[in-house]
Design brief:
346 residues, alpha/beta, Rossmann fold, 2 domains, six-stranded mixed beta sheet, 11 helices
C-alpha cells in the first residue's frame, strides 16, 4: 500500500471483533469499542500531552458547521479544551466553498491574542496568507497536509502540518468494496460524485475511487462529476445519471451528505435497492441509512478525534514539543455487517 497523506497510513478494518492494522498486527478490543480503540491509537502517535501551566487560548477555523461532520469535529475540540483546561474559540465559514470568508476569520484571529491557531483549509491555498501572518507574529499554527507546502513556504508560512487522513485510501477503500460487491452480481456501470474540485480531500477521494474502479474488470466508470459537497447538487446529478444510464449499478460519493442525497434520488426514481451507494464520513444520518439498508456503506473516520488530536498538538507545540511524523486518524469501512459495533463512533 502506498504511503500518502501521512507517513504511516493507518487504515484498519473491523472484522469479527478485531481491529486489524495494515501491517498485519491486530488488537483485540476486550472492553473497548472500535471507536475507543482507534482513538487511543491516534493519541499514541502524538504521545503524552501535559496540561498547560498557564492560561492558554486557542483559535480554530473549520470549513463550515452546515455539515454534521464539522459539528462533530467542533465537539471534539471543545471536549479536549475542557480536558486540558484551555480556552478555545471555534469558528467556521458559512459554506464549504466560502474561501474568502474562511480566510477573513483566520486573519481576525491572528489580529487577536491567541496562543495558537488551528486551520482546516477549504482549498490548498486559501488560508496561506493567514498562516503567513500568524508565523510573522510568532503564533503557533497547526493545519493539515491539504495545504500546498511549497506555496506556504514561499509566502513565509511555517505551520505544523498534520497528515490526519489519507483521502486517497478512503476513496479507494469505498470504491473497492463497491466493485467487489457488484462483481458478485455481474458488475456493471458506476459513477463518482466528487466534492469541490479544488479541495484536496475531494481530489484524493476521487482519485482513489477511480483507481479502484479502474482496477476492477467487472465495473465501468460512466461519469465523474463534482457535487461541490452540496446535497441538492448531488441529488440532481444522480437524477440525471439515472436518466442517462438506466442500468447504472453504483455511485461512489466523496461524503455522506452527497451519498444520502444520491440515495434519495435513487429511491425517488423507483430504483431503491438496485443502485449501490457508498459515502465517506459516517455521519449519524449515514449510520441510520446503513442500518436500514438504504446506504451500502461509508468509510468512517472520527472528526471528533481530529478535533481532540489537533488541540493536543497545539498544546504540545506551545510547550516546545517537537511534533512527530505520522499523527493521523484511523479509517474503517462501515457496512450493515459491522454497523452495530460502531454505535459510539463520532
Amino acid at each position: 500500500m502506498k504511503m500518502r497523506n501521512f507517513s504511516r497510513v493507518m487504515t484498519w478494518m473491523l472484522v469479527a471483533g478485531v481491529l486489524v492494522f495494515n501491517s498485519g498486527n491486530s488488537f483485540v478490543f476486550g472492553e473497548a469499542t472500535p471507536w475507543e480503540q482507534a482513538r487511543a491509537q491516534t493519541f499514541k502517535t502524538l504521545g503524552k500531552v501535559e496540561k498547560p501551566s498557564k492560561p492558554m487560548k486557542i483559535g480554530v477555523v473549520l470549513v463550515t458547521l452546515a455539515n454534521p461532520y464539522w459539528v462533530s469535529m467542533k465537539n471534539g475540540y471543545e471536549s479536549a479544551a475542557k480536558e486540558f483546561g484551555v480556552e478555545i474559540d471555534v469558528q467556521a465559514a458559512p459554506q464549504e466553498n466560502s474561501t474568502t470568508s474562511q480566510l477573513n476569520i483566520f486573519e481576525n484571529m491572528v489580529a487577536k491574542d491567541y496562543d495558537a491557531i488551528i486551520g482546516h483549509t477549504i482549498t490548498a491555498h486559501n488560508l496561506i496568507p493567514g498562516l503567513a501572518r500568524a508565523t510573522k507574529k510568532g503564533i503557533v499554527t497547526v493545519t493539515d497536509a491539504r495545504v500546498d507546502k511549497q506555496a506556504a513556504k514561499e509566502a513565509g508560512a511555517d505551520p505544523i502540518y498534520l497528515g490526519l487522513v489519507d483521502y486517497y485510501e478512503q476513496g479507494r477503500m469505498g470504491a473497492a468494496y463497491m466493485a467487489r460487491e457488484l462483481s458478485k452480481k455481474g458488475g456493471g456501470k458506476v459513477a463518482i460524485i466528487e466534492g469541490l474540485p479544488a479541495a484536496p480531500q475531494s481530489k484524493g477521494r476521487k482519485d482513489g475511487a477511480k483507481a479502484a474502479f479502474d482496477a476492477s474488470p467487472s465495473v465501468e466508470i460512466v461519469s465523474i462529476q463534482p457535487g461541490n459537497w452540496d446535497r441538492a447538487k448531488a441529488y440532481d446529478i444522480t437524477t440525471n445519471l439515472l436518466q442517462a444510464h438506466p442500468d447504472l449499478k453504483g455511485i461512489m460519493c466523496a461524503n455522506d451528505v452527497m451519498a444520502l442525497a444520491a440515495v434519495e434520488a435513487v429511491e425517488a426514481a423507483g430504483k431503491g435497492g438496485d443502485v449501490m451507494v457508498v459515502g465517506i464520513d459516517l455521519i449519524d444520518q449515514g449510520k441510520d441509512a446503513i442500518k436500514a439498508g438504504r446506504l451500502a456503506g461509508s468509510v468512517a473516520f472520527s472528526p471528533f478525534v481530529i478535533g481532540e488530536i489537533c488541540t493536543r498538538t497545539a498544546i504540545a507545540a506551545s510547550q516546545g514539543r517537537k511534533i512527530p511524523q505520522g499523527v493521523g486518524v484511523v479509517s474503517i469501512l462501515a457496512t450493515k455487517n459491522n454497523i452495530d459495533n460502531l454505535k459510539d463512533w463520532k
